Amino acid sequence: DVKVTQSSRYLVKRTGEKVFLECVQDMDHENMFWYRQDPGLGLRLIYFSYDVKMKEKGDIPEGYSVSREKKERFSLILESASTNQTSMYLCASGDSQNTEAFFGQGTRLTVV
Amino acid sequence: GDSVTQMEGPVTLSEEAFLTINCTYTATGYPSLFWYVQYPGEGLQLLLKATKADDKGSNKGFEATYRKETTSFHLEKGSVQVSDSAVYFCALSRTTDSWGKLQFGAGTQVVVTP
């Protein structure tokens, strides 16, 4: 069974903390994505990666960075967490043919 | 830029009722169109897709037809069940995009009551 696994389902962090969200896929996919989900806004793309060490900004990259040191792992980093980054974060992966994106179960981050 | 507009929810239905969720899009060229579903407490999963005009995607009793002339991809199901309660997202990706980035609508929550 194909799987995208996010390391945490729920996180609570303090303002100003550095936060790492981890995502691992077992499908050998080239492409990986981080989305943010907010009510009434749907999902918005933060960053994506099409290969190891390669990354591109999405629609809302401000306040975030990413790391992809290995093909199966894609990390989202909040350099200095702020309350407006309280949200649901979804990781996804897809193959180079773009037939389908597979999503993790999401991490609900609360910044207090 | 590209955008997807879908009807606001929540949509509340009785079991065995007919469901329609409207979705329209704005995009240059010929995007691929998708419906994703998110069950409570879970991530998104692909429900169906269509990659060219007049294609019909179908899965689990749901259907949607890619209508280029009306730039629409409405989701329908003839008889819903309580287990269909979820949030449904319409999305597109550009065929010229080699990475499969998705542009999502806001999502429509569907509540089916017994």
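qc> Chain A has no helices and eleven strands.
qc> done
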